[in-house]
Amino acid sequence: MKFMKLGSKPDAFHTDGSCVRYVSSELATDVIINVGDVKFHLHKFPLLSKSNKLQKLVSKAGEESLDEIPLADFPGGSKAFEICAKFCYGITVTLNPYNVVAARCAAEYLEMTEDIDRGNLILKIEIFLNSSVLRNWKDTIIVLQTTKSLFPWSENLKIVGRCVDSIASKTSVDPSLITWSYTYNRKMATSDQIIQSGIKFPEKTESVPKDWWVEDICELDIDLYKRVMVAIKSKGRMDGGVIGEALKTYAMRWLPDSVDALVSEVHILRNKALVETIICLLPSDKSISCSCSFLLKLLKVAILIGADDSSREDLIRSISLKLDEALVSDLLIPARSPHTTIYDIELVQRLVDQFVANEKSNRDLKIVDKNSKSEGEFVLAHGSWLKVGKIVDGYLAAVAHDPNLSISCFIKLSRSIPESARPIHDGLYGAIDIYLKEHKNLTKSERKNLCGLMDVKKLTTDASMHAAQNEQLPLRVVVQVLFFEQVRSAASAHALNNSHNAMDPPRNTQENWGKSAPENRKSLRKQMDEIKIKDEELLKNGKLAKRSSKNRASGAQLLPSRSRRIFDKLWIVGKGLANGENKSSETSASSQSPTSMIQGETKSSGSSSRQRRHSIS
C-alpha cells in the first residue's frame, strides 16, 4: 500500500471530551469551526493562509458577529477536516488509499488551491493520486470503494472515472507480466520445496490465468462494478469468456443461497438491482462463457425476485442461444401464479421456439444453395439440434408426472423441434409412457393423438420390446411395433445373406432377386403366421382383453374382433407377399399402417380383397 507524509511538526491536536478538538499552543485560539458534531478550536492565521473558503467565512462571521463558523455538508466529516487543518499547521499527516479521497474532497471544499499558496494541499494530493495510487492495482480498488460515500464530490472531481479507467486498463495487461502478489484477493502462488536425498529442486512459477482480476473487483458495490465492467467491455480487448466468468463470480459472491434471504424485504431491492445489472452486462452473442446452467439459475432468481420484463427477456434470449448445453434439471423452473402446473412449461416452450428460430436463421445465412442440402443432412451436420431433441424428450419425461399438465401442452412442446432432430424416438416413447400412466382418464382420441407423436420405425429394439408389452398403448400401436420389428429382422437377415453371397461368383442380378424374393416373402409370411397363432392363443385365454378398450362394460367381445381384423390384414399382407402381390393398407390415413412399409405397393381390386378376407375367416 502506497502512502505519503505531509508536514514535519508533531501532533498538537488534543481532545476535550468527545466533541471538542483543540490545538495546544502558547497562543489562545481565536476561531471555532463546527464540522458535524465536533467543534474545532483553532487559530485564524494558519487556516486563512491556505484556505480561500475559510477566508470568506471568517470575514462573513465577523460582519455578523458570529462566535462559531458552521461548515454544512462537509465532505469526509470531521476526520477529513482535521487532515486539512493539520496541513495548515504544518503538522505531520499521512495520506493513504483509505483517506486520500476524503482529503481531496475536503481540500476542494476549502478551496486550498495554488492561487492561495504554492504547494497547497490539492496539488500534493493530485500528485500522490496520479503518481502512486492509480498505478497500483489494489490501491486503486480501495480508492474506488471509498468514493461511494463521497458522492457527488468524488464524481465531480473525476476520481471515480480515473479509478475506473485505471482498473480497466490494468485488466488488459498481458497475464505473463502479472504476479499473484499483484492481485488483491489471491495470494502469491509458491510451489512446495521438494527435498529428496539432499537435493533441492527449484521452485516452479505458476502461470497467471486471464481472469486473475475477477475476484478482486467483486468487492466493489454494484454501481461501481457495473461501471468497471462497462469500461472493460468498451476497450474491446477482453475475451467474452473472461467477462462471463467475472459476472458469474460476482453473482455467486453477493446473491444469498437461501430463498428467504433472497426475497426478504431488507435485501430484495439490492438483489433485484444486482440481477438486473448482471443481465444487462451479459455479452449478446453465443460466445458468452457463462454456462447455460448458470444462466438458467439466474433466470430462476430473476423470476423469484420480480426482475423487470426487459431483463428477463434479455436473459431468455441469451439462454436460447445456448439451449443445447442445458441440463433437464436446470429447466425445471417452478411455475408461479396463475399457472397451475408444477413447472413453467410455457417458459421452456419459449426457449425452444427461440432456439429453433435462431438455428434456422443461421442455417439460411450459411447455406447459399438451399436445395443442395436436405434438412436431415443439415441436422446431422449440426449436433446442437440433436442435443436439444434429447433435452426436450428428457424434459417431457420429467414433467409428464404433473397431473395438471394438459395433453395439448405436451404435444405442442414435443412438436417444437423438427422431426429430423429426433432420429431415435426412445426418449419420446418414454415420456409418452409416463404420461399415459399418470393420466388414466384420457379418451381414445387423446391416446391416439399422443401416440401419434412417435414413429415406431424409429424405436430401438429394446424400446420396441417394451412397447410390445405395454398395456397403456393402443392396440394398433402395439401391432405396428410388432410388424416393423419383424420387417427389421427380415431386412437384417436379407443383408446377412447378401454378405455371404458376396463371396460367390457374380450372377445375373435379376435372377438373384427372383430367387431370393420368394424366400424372404415366405419367411415374412411364416413370421406373420406365428404372430397370428400367438394372438389367437392370447384371445382364447382372455389375456388380450386386458389391454384396454374404449368401454370395459360392453367391450368384452369387441377386443377380440378388433384384434382379429387387424391381424387379418397382417395375414393378407403375408399371403399377398407369398403370391408375389402387394396390397395397400385399409387402415385410416391418420394412423401409420404396417402395410405402408412394403415397397412398391399397389392397389388390388376390391373383389379380390373381399375374397381373400372371406377365405381366411
UniProtKB/TrEMBL annotation:
The keyword Metal-binding does not apply. CDD domains: BTB_POZ_NPY3-like (cd18312). Residues 496-521, 578-617 are annotated as: Disordered. Residues 29-97 form the BTB domain. Pfam families: BTB (PF00651), NPH3 (PF03000). Pathway: Protein modification; protein ubiquitination. SMART domains: BTB. Residues 211-488 form the NPH3 domain. It comes from the Eukaryota. Keywords: Ubl conjugation pathway. Belongs to the NPH3 family. This is BTB/POZ domain-containing protein NPY1.
